[in-house]
Design a protein that fits this description.
Keywords: Endonuclease, Hydrolase, Nuclease, RNA-binding, tRNA processing. It catalyses: Endonucleolytic cleavage of RNA, removing 5'-extranucleotides from tRNA precursor. Belongs to the RnpA family. Its EC number is 3.1.26.5. This is Ribonuclease P protein component. A four-stranded mixed β-sheet has the order 1-2-4-3, sandwiched between helices. It has a single domain, classed as Ribosomal Protein S5, domain 2 (2-Layer Sandwich). The mean pLDDT is 89. 39% of the residues lie in helices and 18% in strands. Helix 2 links the parallel strand 3 and strand 4. The longest helix is centred in the middle third of the chain and has 18 residues. With 122 residues, the protein is of the alpha+beta class.
Length: 122
């Protein structure tokens, strides 16, 4: 994922976590918050609860790959943080992709049936 699409600073992660809306899913937890930029920024987190370093890195790679696929469809002006949850490793890549797509639609960041459902800034 290109650098301009990444959340890199701790203060950005904390702002999104504090001011954002949470979209839970058994495999991944999304927190989304509006930003004042003309781009979408994405951060991926996998804590020790996910498993060993190998498993955490695999979960982060899967989430980044899924989010990279949906990046062109995401509207600008949003910060998205994806937190991997423990069952993500057993679920595999394709179930993770489905979970990411479902969560982004629930957040109102991906169109459902050709139109955006709702915006979280409302």
């Amino acid at each position: 994922m290109k650098r301009r699409f990444r959340l890199r600073h701790r203060s950005d992660f904390e702002r999104v976590r504090r001011a954002g809306k949470t979209i839970p899913h058994p495999l991944v937890l999304f927190v989304v918050a509006p930003n004042s930029l003309d781009t979408v920024r994405i951060g991926v987190v996998a804590g020790r609860v996910v498993g060993s370093a190998v498993q955490r890195n695999r979960a982060k790679r899967w989430l980044r790959a899924c989010l990279q696929e949906f990046l062109p469809a995401l509207p600008p002006g949003w910060d998205v943080v994806a937190f991997a949850r423990r069952p993500i490793i057993e679920a595999g890549f394709w179930k993770t992709r489905a979970a990411v797509e479902e969560s982004l639609k629930r957040a109102g960041l991906l169109p459902v049936n050709g139109k955006y459902e709702r915006r979280l800034s409302e």
